[in-house]
Write a structure and sequence with these properties.
This protein is mainly β. Helices cover about 10% and strands about 55% of the residues.
Length: about 350
């Protein structure tokens, strides 16, 4: 899995370093908060995590059409350190890509970031069997923050303060993997390296009607994961989707479709359950395949779009997980027809897979 995280990191750097006309800024925030225990595995892992996040920002000023459409957001990279103040959990480090969106005269900031994480003290059967949250050192990291921000309070120096939600999980590429969610209060400073913050719209941009007819999408997502049995082994999965989408305006499209899940770790899990727990009356030949129907929403930014989907299994002979599943991720559009994607498929708070996909939109 290390090579997949490395590819994802390179992808993030390339995407967020693609423009050269924007100015630079930095944010440094300190935070402290609480673990949110979403499973019984985590009640002994609570504490008061603290840490720091450094955001390296590109400020937009209207050189591209999407700048004005999203009220001149920031984009860039973040570095994160989080100490869980719990001997079993240890510390986590994160690095990845981010967007800052602004509201209410640019005083309210919404931070959305996605990257990779490194855990210093993951699960070990002998040395650290109490850590049921992290089954591996490498993980996915998601952060969502809402802050009040005041720029140029003293010359180029400003302040920000607010709330931050963080999530570390390996997407069940290796078990155990309950993952950790934390809710934090943060406060910090920001500094603008530019002396000219003038924002101006490019008047040469021709207004465009973004509404489109219904499009047809074919997506293949893959990776590998492990069943809930620790040490059962990692197996590849293949998730094939067909869906239609309808783009209504500059930012939004709705989706409806179906998908087939070929998850080999479930096939192995069925065989294990049939032998280890005969009272469950599970036949080893039970079909492991699943079919789902889903609805989704896609938010178009520039070449990147954010995607969320909620689905329902209409075919699921082995009834182990919830009947409802969800997916959240992002896409990078090479052109109007070809895109790649990275997403996390879950059943509520329980991650099933980190998915790397390639899609065609016709």
């Amino acid at each position: 899995m290390r090579k997949y995280y490395f590819v994802f990191l390179l992808f993030s750097i390339a995407v967020f370093g693609q423009e050269n006309n924007d100015t630079n800024a930095i944010e440094v925030s300190l935070f402290r908060g609480n673990v949110i225990p979403h499973t019984i595995d985590l009640y002994h892992l609570q504490g008061h995590p603290n840490g720091m996040m450094v955001s390296l920002l590109k400020q937009t000023h209207g050189k591209e059409e999407w700048h004005k459409a999203f009220n001149y957001p920031d984009y860039g990279m973040y570095l994160q350190y989080q100490n869980y103040t719990n001997d079993f959990l240890g510390k986590c480090y994160g690095i990845g890509a981010l967007y800052n969106f602004y509201f209410f005269n640019r005083h309210l900031q919404l931070k959305v970031s996605q990257g990779i994480g490194y855990a210093t003290n993951p699960y070990d059967k002998v040395e650290n069997s109490k850590n049921r949250a992290f089954g591996s050192t490498l993980m996915a990291n998601t952060n969502i923050g809402l802050s009040y921000k005041k720029e140029h309070l003293i010359d180029n120096l400003g302040v920000q303060a607010g709330f931050l939600f963080t999530h570390f999980s390996n997407g069940r590429t290796k078990t155990p993997n309950s993952g950790i969610n934390t809710f934090l209060v943060n406060v910090g400073l920001n500094y603008d390296f530019s002396n000219n913050n003038k924002r101006s719209v490019d008047t040469t941009i021709v207004k465009k009607n973004y509404s489109e007819p219904i499009k047809y999408n074919f997506v293949l997502r893959s990776g590998y994961n492990e069943s809930a049995i620790i040490g059962s082994g990692q197996y590849p999965f293949y998730h094939a989707s067909f869906f239609i989408d309808k783009r209504f305006n500059r930012k939004s499209a709705l989706q409806f479709g179906t998908e087939l899940f070929l998850t080999n770790s479930i096939k192995d899990y069925i065989r294990y359950i049939s032998i280890a727990y005969p009272d469950y009356n599970i036949d080893a030949s039970t079909d492991y395949k699943r079919v789902g129907l889903f609805v989704g929403y896609e938010l178009f930014i520039n070449k990147i779009s954010l995607e969320g989907q909620v689905g329902y299994y209409i075919y699921r002979p082995f009834k182990d997980d919830l009947v409802i599943y969800d997916r959240i991720g992002f896409k990078y559009h090479f052109n109007s027809k070809i895109y790649t994607s990275f997403s996390v498929k879950t059943h509520m708070f329980y991650a099933e897979a980190l998915e790397f996909g390639i899609g065609v939109r016709l």
